[in-house]
Write a structure and sequence with these properties.
mainly alpha
């Protein structure tokens, strides 16, 4: 599913380039959420530039594929959409408009951090365990988010990133507990 999502998002970006009004009509505009609630989801599939798209799709493919192998396709889709939706709801309180899959991708990263904290990845050009990379990403996003309160324009929805990663971590904790409970129940049923 991760690869299929990447394909769909690439196709939608091409449509954004061809049909200029597509982005404006389906991006997240905080003042329009009550009249057009679907933009909380549609904005996840839109991106502002090729660079924005390529960074997000690389992360979605890489981290999404790992997570999907751990939890299955249906649960992966639940994590993607639920964290993306919540990230966008929170973003409405801080940004007049936004777009992109970052909140959902950070949700995937958050869950993967709980399930595979020592998995080696390359972040900031340095190999490190997933947990360390996630802590660094959180620090960077907190720094970016604090600039919001000082009136500095950022162009990055740091609040959405933070919401995604924390919700993803909570889902990861819940999933680990579910797996433990399931194993315990199986053992008791066998005895």
């Amino acid at each position: 599913m991760a690869l299929k999502l990447v394909g769909v998002i690439f196709l939608i970006f091409i449509l954004q380039v061809v049909f200029k009004g597509l982005t404006k009509n389906f991006m997240l505009v905080a003042s329009d959420v009550l009249s057009r609630p679907w933009i909380l989801i549609t904005s996840i599939f839109l991106h502002g530039s090729w660079t924005h798209l390529l960074y997000n799709m690389f992360a979605l493919f890489l981290f999404g594929s790992f997570l999907e192998k751990q939890i299955g396709s249906n649960r992966f889709l639940f994590v993607f959409f639920s964290t993306g939706l919540m990230a966008n709801i929170v973003a409405c309180f801080f940004y007049s408009n936004s777009l992109g899959a970052s909140g959902a991708i950070y949700g995937i990263i958050g869950m993967l951090t709980i399930l595979k904290p020592l998995m080696p990845i390359l972040a900031f050009g340095v190999p490190m365990p997933m947990i360390i990379a996630s802590i660094l990403w959180i620090i960077v996003d907190f720094a970016g988010f604090s600039s919001y309160f000082h009136g500095l324009p950022g162009g990055i929805a740091n609040a959405a990133h933070l919401t995604g990663i924390f919700l993803g971590a909570l889902l990861g904790i819940g999933f680990k507990q579910f797996v433990k409970w399931k194993k315990l129940l199986k053992r008791r049923l066998k005895s």
